[in-house]
Amino acid sequence: MARTAWVGGNWKCNGTTESIKTLGEVFNGTSFDKKKLNVVIFPTAIHYSTARQALNEQYELGSQNVSKTKNGAFTGEVSAEMLKNMNVPWTLVGHSERRTLYHETDADTAVKTKIALEHGIEVCLCIGETLEEREAEKTNEVCSRQIDACVEAISDWNKVVIAYEPVWAIGTGKVASQQQAQDAHEAIRAHIAKKVSQEVADKVRIVYGGSVSDANCEGLIQMKDIDGFLVGGASLKPAFVDIIKAVKAARA
Ligand code: 13P
């Protein structure tokens, strides 16, 4: 089954009005067919409108986080209601930096996934094991657990992309090998087939994240269960366009 490729650019806590304008000029210089490839940029909340103005309509935008609480006395939070009101179509949920640095639990990711989907916001659900867990051969167990936590919360699998991001590969320059990434993606798809249905497993997009660059993306996108990427550092550089081009060429 042909799945529409998906590439995310997670800008994390980076950017200035000037850098976003400059990147926008570079990104806008490439074109792709939105029916074959979705590209979603995740700027900080404060840069959202700057990024929306800088990027042309080929690019969708998303939030890096969504509150698990509603509007009200929750200082520092951005609610799903607000994302909906501001026409923000996507949000990341469960990024490893949220899980590790801000102590978000599997239960938190489930609540955030549910609340985002209820407000019509598509979710890129991030999962992945630490180095310790990989060395203990617990990769599949960890990914399955992180997915299981959210299965009940997912009312529409068409609105969910899974990002497999091994923690040891994030920001380290140590990209997973093509086979390591393929094995993990295949196991995630098999788990979804068992827990949800074969139909959902066949159609859900599973993208790889962790030190993706213009130098390694061509090989990774050839793997049969890899439907695209969630890119961190390289999405802040002109080379992000080369990643878009590589995915476009592989899916042409
Ligand atoms: P890097 O591409 O910088 O390793 O970051 C990956 C990531 O965390 C994307 O969400």
TrEMBL record:
Gene Ontology terms for molecular function:
triose-phosphate isomerase activity
Q: What class of enzyme is it?
A: isomerase
Pathway listed for it?
A: Carbohydrate degradation; glycolysis; D-glyceraldehyde 3-phosphate from glycerone phosphate: step 1/1; Carbohydrate biosynthesis; gluconeogenesis
Family annotation (Gene3D superfamilies):
Aldolase class I
Q: Which reaction does it catalyse?
A: D-glyceraldehyde 3-phosphate = dihydroxyacetone phosphate
EC number(s) per entry: 5.3.1.1
- Fill in the subunit field for this protein: Homodimer.
- Which family would the database say this protein is a member of? Belongs to the triosephosphate isomerase family.
Q: Tell me the protein's name.
A: Triosephosphate isomerase
Organism field: Gregarina niphandrodes (Septate eugregarine)
